Amino acid sequence: MADEKAKSPAEILYAEGMKYDWKQNQSPAAATLARAAFQQAATMGHSNALRALAHLIYEGRGGPQDREHALLILWSAFIRGDRDALEELEDMLETYGETAGDSRRAKTAVATAQSVGELRSLVERISDFMHDIARERAASKREN
Prior knowledge:
Helices cover about 80% and strands about 0% of the residues. By secondary structure, it is an all-alpha fold.
């Protein structure tokens, strides 16, 4: 009980959503409850909930399926600073490309997934470089 008081409301909702998400195979209502909890937590800015919601929407669990909306949600999560969303977006775009009925859209989705993979690599290199700079600056300040 004391642990729950220390958690933010968004974290509590996310945890609740995960409990329902794990039970969704046992009850169709569980997916609906998971989706609602993730939606509320995502509205509060919880990045894991936003990504979980995107997957439920993509697959049509707990509500209507909207694959394009799910892709947009993951992109939005990345734009808001969630680097983990890029990997999930890349995977989702690949799946989308494999199942898209329109061959032009399928090819574009696969090419976009490749671009997202390249972006992930670039962001990782930039991040590593910036961390190196930060470590060097911190070490320099300790020496002075």
